[in-house]
Amino acid sequence: MSGSTVLARCRVLVVEDEYFIADDMARALEQLGAEVVGPAPSREHALALIASGERIDAAILDINLQGQSALPVAEALAAKGVPFVFATGYDRNSVPPAYQDVPRWEKPFNPNHLARALSGLMRSGTA
Questions:
Q1: Structural element, H or E, at residue 122
Q2: What is the pTM of this model?
Q3: For residue 117, which of 104, 101, 100 has the smallest C-alpha distance?
Q4: Fold for the domain defined by 3-124
């Protein structure tokens, strides 16, 4: 199964406060057939999208959004059973123990590689 098949019609929430990074991630996901939800540049915006009842199949989440922790977003996603990955400048030691098993992409990274990895994680069921 190709990456584009796995992400085709999947709705992926992008939670990132840096416009150019969010835009690059959105484009990479769309090239693989995903429909991007957001991007959400703040914790409040991301939580509102999750609470809206809009279908979200997976998410890419920056840990620090405009100086605020995005861990409440991770909690909301986990509560809904939505798989997610962290895309962050923080190292593994900065991730709380409850989220140590969440796949983490350390910035800077290639958004195309992240989109393809998300596809692989969804295929294997570990995202």
A1: helix 111-124
A2: 0.86
A3: 104
A4: Rossmann fold (3.40.50)
For 51-66, give one letter per residue: b (16+ CB within 10 A) or e. Answer: eeeeebbbbbbbbebe
Question: How far, in Å, CA of 58 to CA of 21, rounded?
Answer: 18
User: What residue segments make up the domains of the chain, in order of their start?
Assistant: 3-124
Amino acid at 47: L
Strand 11-15 vs strand 58-61: parallel, antiparallel, or unpaired?
parallel
Distance CA 67, CA 85 (A): 19
Instruction: Give every CB contact of residue 87 below 8 A, 6+ residues apart in sequence.
Output: 16, 21, 25, 60, 61, 62, 104, 105, 107, 109, 114
Report the first-to-last Cα separation within the chain, whole angstroms.
Answer: 17
Per-residue pLDDT of the chain (127 residues; tens, 9 = 90+): 344 467 888 999 999 999 999 999 999 899 888 999 999 999 999 999 999 999 999 999 999 998 999 999 999 999 999 999 998 877 778 788 888 888 888 777 777 777 877 777 777 665 5
